[in-house]
């Protein structure tokens, strides 16, 4: 009977604390025991399964999918958003909203943020960020050069500048072509001290926010007039490329694809991304599922924000 009497008192202490919301010091006074004894009994209540902690995910959230994705791909955090339909526009909007909230809550003081400014999903994120009180970021760095037509390049410049203004950081733009005409042209552009000053920040990034793309360019990039040619795209397919992050390509097993095209890109490399403290990827949609699955095998992504349809496909 001794154990039953012990557990009865343990249960009473737990009831007073968790149900009646009394402080530990109050419980000690009422039951004539020390606060240390009360604390030990509360721990005992958990050990004896008298008190069970249950987290009930609210409607519209997908804790099981998030847990399974974290476990399978070794991710620090996964955010799976609800979406009424498996359509790119709807998916991008919901991902952008969730990513904006996550950034607002988790951004630390003096962060150096790298942003892949050619992602429409990241644009949705920036659209949803509220101006932060006081300066949070130190720099917001454009991690891929501009693309083609000047009117389209404005997109990348404005996205970077807007994110800097919202987070209180200083924008550092990469005002050169993202894809140069030749390796020699790239070397000339890299000789510019302003370009070098921006790219020197690549090794100091505390947070990189990136999109994930299929090999075929997005609508935004296709409009830029500065994507690879049909023959070059064929070269990438033959090399096994299935996706890209900031125009750095990789295969289905998450291995970087090395082609001469790499020598023409001015932007963050996958190795530099790997050395970044925290990498947050925003991506969803059926057309990108293979690219996302392969990107998660690269071992560079820490936080994934995606939709419920894509999450289910990634786990199937």
UniProtKB/TrEMBL annotation:
<keyword id="KW-0238">DNA-binding</keyword>
<feature type="domain" description="Sugar-binding">
    <location>
        <begin position="63"/>
        <end position="316"/>
    </location>
</feature>
<protein>
    <submittedName>
        <fullName>Sugar-binding transcriptional regulator</fullName>
    </submittedName>
</protein>
<dbReference type="Pfam" id="PF04198">
    <property type="entry name" value="Sugar-bind"/>
</dbReference>
<keyword id="KW-0805">Transcription regulation</keyword>
<dbReference type="InterPro" id="IPR007324">
    <property type="entry name" value="Sugar-bd_dom_put"/>
</dbReference>
<dbReference type="InterPro" id="IPR037171">
    <property type="entry name" value="NagB/RpiA_transferase-like"/>
</dbReference>
<dbReference type="InterPro" id="IPR051054">
    <property type="entry name" value="SorC_transcr_regulators"/>
</dbReference>
<comment type="similarity">
    <text>Belongs to the SorC transcriptional regulatory family.</text>
</comment>
<keyword id="KW-0804">Transcription</keyword>
């Amino acid at each position: 009977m001794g154990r039953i009497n012990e557990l009865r008192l343990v249960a009473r202490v737990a009831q007073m604390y968790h149900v009646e919301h009394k402080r530990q010091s109050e419980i000690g006074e009422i039951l004539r025991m020390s606060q240390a004894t009360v604390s030990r009994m509360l721990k005992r209540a958990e050990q004896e399964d008298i008190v069970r902690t249950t987290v009930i995910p609210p409607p519209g959230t997908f804790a099981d999918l998030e847990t399974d994705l974290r476990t399978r791909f070794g991710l620090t955090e996964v955010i799976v958003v609800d979406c009424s339909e498996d359509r790119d526009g709807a998916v991008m909007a919901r991902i952008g909203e969730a990513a904006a909230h996550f950034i607002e809550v988790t951004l630390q003081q003096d962060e150096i943020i790298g942003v892949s400014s050619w992602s429409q999903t990241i644009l949705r994120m920036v659209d949803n960020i509220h101006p932060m009180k006081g300066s949070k970021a130190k720099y917001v760095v454009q991690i891929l050069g501009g693309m083609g037509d000047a009117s389209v390049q404005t997109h990348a410049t404005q996205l970077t500048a807007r994110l800097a203004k919202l987070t209180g950081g200083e924008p550092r733009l990469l005002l050169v072509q993202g894809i140069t005409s030749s390796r020699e042209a790239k070397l000339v552009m890299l000789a510019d001290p302003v370009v070098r000053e921006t790219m020197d920040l690549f090794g100091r990034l505390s947070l990189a926010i990136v999109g994930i793309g299929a090999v075929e360019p997005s609508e935004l990039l296709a409009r830029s007039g500065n994507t690879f040619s049909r023959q070059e795209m064929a070269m990438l397919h033959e090399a096994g490329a299935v996706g890209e992050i900031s125009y750095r390509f990789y295969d289905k097993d998450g291995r970087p694809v090395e082609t001469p095209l790499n020598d023409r890109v001015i932007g963050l490399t996958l190795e530099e991304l790997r050395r970044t403290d925290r990498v947050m990827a925003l991506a969803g949609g059926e057309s990108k599922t293979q690219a996302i699955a392969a990107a998660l095998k690269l071992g560079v992504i820490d936080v994934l924000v995606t939709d419920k349809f894509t999450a289910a496909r990634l786990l199937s």
